[in-house]
Write a structure and sequence with these properties.
By secondary structure, this protein is an alpha+beta fold. The protein has helices spanning about 1-20, 35-40, 70-75, 115-125; strands at about 25, 45-50, 85, 105-110, 130, 135-140, 145-150, 160-165, 170-175, 180, 190-195, 200-204. The strands form three sheets. It has a six-stranded antiparallel beta sheet, with helices on one face. The longest helix has 17 residues, at about 1-20.
């Protein structure tokens, strides 16, 4: 399996980089595409899909399959710094149904001063963005001492933020529209998942 998938993945990554692009490893759980062990045998990718809004993408995994978040954590814990992204994987624009790959189900918010291609690509390249399938953040603040989030409040939703570190270990959980985690230095990495009471999420 490694002998088959890894060379194909690496050739695709190399081709994208040669063309001047940034490579994203998409929908890990679409027909059992790949696992973290495959990703860890590749180099050069910048992103991994933590959410894909297309039908049958199995983002949450199953009894014998890790979720996309678990795959992301295993990859980061294995030493690869890949940013988590969300996409709608839209293919169908004229018929809107749950079993169609329609637009608007996953996206990435970038922090930019101006809406130029160069600024947007640089924000993606440096991790100045967050992924979402329905949760909006007012602000994200990161430095070597803390990760802080401000979540846009609505009249119908409540929120919990889960801060996660090495090997997917839950470091802390915070309820409400403000979430803060003070970095101790032994976490390996710190990321966050914001979960709305509607089931929508954001990933930082």
């Amino acid at each position: 399996d490694l002998d088959e998938k890894v060379p194909t993945m690496q050739a695709s990554i190399d081709g994208i980089l040669a063309a001047g692009g940034m490579a994203s490893l998409n929908h890990p759980n679409d027909r059992d595409s790949y696992l973290a062990e495959h990703v860890l045998q590749t180099t050069g990718a910048s992103f991994i899909e933590v959410f894909n809004g297309g039908p049958s993408k199995n983002n949450d995994g199953g009894p014998d399959r890790p979720s996309t978040e678990e795959t992301w954590d295993t990859v980061i814990s294995g030493g690869q710094r890949l940013y988590g992204i969300a996409t709608d994987d839209a293919h169908t624009y004229d018929e809107f149904r749950p079993d169609r790959a329609n637009p608007g189900r996953g996206w990435d918010f970038v922090r930019v001063d101006d809406l130029t291609e160069e600024s947007i690509l640089e924000a993606l390249r440096t991790g100045e963005f967050y992924a979402s399938n329905g949760v909006t953040l007012n602000d994200v603040s990161t430095d070597t001492s803390a990760l802080s989030l401000s979540i846009q409040a609505t009249s119908t939703e409540s929120f919990i933020t889960r801060f996660v570190g090495m090997n997917g270990r839950v470091l802390s959980e915070r309820i409400g529209t403000a979430a803060h985690y003070s970095i101790k230095g032994d976490e390996g990495y710190v990321r966050a998942t914001v979960i709305s009471s509607t089931g929508a999420k954001a990933w930082v």
